[in-house]
Amino acid sequence: MNLYTLSIIALIALVLVINIKKARVIYIKSLMLPAVCVIFILMLIIFSDTAVKSAGSGLSLWLNVVFPSLFPFFAVSEILYRTGFIKAIGILLEPIMRPLFNVPGCGSFAFAMGITSGYPVGAKITASMREEKLLSKTESERLLSFTNNSGPLFIIGAVAVGMFRMPELGLLLLVCHILASITVGILFRFYGRNSREDKAKDGKNLWTRFKKELAYNSRQKLNPGTMLGEAIRNSINVMLSIGGFITLFSVIINILIEIGFISCLSSFISPLLSPFGIKREIVLAVLSGFFEMTTGTSMASKAANTTLQGQLAAVSLLLGWAGLSVHFQVYSIVSRTDISIKPYLFGKMLQGVFAAIYISIAMKLPFTASLTAKSVLNVITPFSDFTWYNALIYSAQNVFASFCILLILTAISLTFHFIRYICKTVLCRSIL
């Protein structure tokens, strides 16, 4: 940051301090947001070139990758809610989701879609379920804490292949990410356990309840044209909101890097963490990823004087945390409901920590001993040859994979229910 920029910022701060001292009554909270907006506008003027390039990069990412990747998930989920399929399949999956995560069986849909699609599909599905009264407030917060995950497209395609140039790392990173998600879900089953809203359904007559729900749905008169139109309209509204957040935070993170804010912050924190062997480059990457995940993971993959294990731990931490850009997207989605964002943020922090621990353990196992760091490009463009058509096809494949996961979970649930039924029958006969 040059002397001219420092002088401008110091002058703005001095004017604000003088005006605050002259005021008799100051409402800090009401002044905070306007002050931030004024400073942000000034930064846009001073760093106009950086702002324009960052906004263009964010828009290109949204248009070529995010929109074709996520739109099919949103549209399909909206249609399935209106047909009643989610509620019906949730009855069959109750024996798995309730004991493990203390959420209704319909939460399996958010879980399956969340691990195959990417941010913020899990949040969108959870919010829609809450609006449809399929979940209580507490159950929604439990479900949201572990179902909003990074997708295979980003972890395998962008991180492993594009950033590390090591495709063999993709599956390892993805497995650790999903395991961390499941760990958080199991821990959060105790969240709000004494809430009066919890209504655990009786596991008896599972198949009877399923057939009854299907019969009820078949009697509903649904207009396919109206249903499809509303699904597309709602999905596009959400996608436009996501595009706005991606573009805005692309500008914010690049301006913070340009003015040296993140660099100064890392210089202050690095001495505190250096005794633990954590290098300044990793601290800088994590701080950047705190705001925007893609930038942070890219910086972590290029961190100098750092082992591959340290790079992967930082990347896994950021993939689990997701970044403020994603969290604001989630907040905008759940703001239509009564779901609190605080449990979600705590869950994402835990997921990042668990993912970093799991990848560190995995890197010490025998089958990962042969993995060595390779050189990466100075400028990371993981989606340079990834067109909107590729993203759309990949998204369709993930929708299919989500339904395969649901079918597998259903088969496991029915098998578990059948075994329990046989055991009870045999036990009753032995008693008689």
Q: So what's the overall shape?
A: globular
Structural class: mainly alpha
Largest sheet: none
Number of helices: 19
CA radius of gyration = 24 Å
Number of domains: 1
Task: Tell me the distance between the termini.
Answer: 84 Å
Order of helices and strands: HHHHHHHHHHHHHHHHHHH
- Report the average pLDDT across residues: 79
Helix content: over 70%
What is the number of E strands? 0
Beta-strand portion reads under 5%
Which regions contain 5 or more consecutive residues with pLDDT less than 50?
372-384
Structural commentary:
By secondary structure, this protein is an all-alpha fold. The chain has one domain. The chain is built from 19 helices and no strands. It is globular and about 75 Å long.
Write the layout of secondary structure elements.
Elements: H1 3-22, H2 28-46, H3 48-83, H4 85-92, H5 94-101, H6 107-117, H7 121-131, H8 137-147, H9 152-163, H10 169-187, H11 206-219, H12 224-259, H13 261-273, H14 280-291, H15 293-301, H16 308-321, H17 324-334, H18 342-362, H19 388-431
Explain briefly what this protein structure is.
Helix content is 76%, strand content 0%. It is mostly helical.
What keywords describe this structure?
single chain, 432 residues, mainly alpha, globular
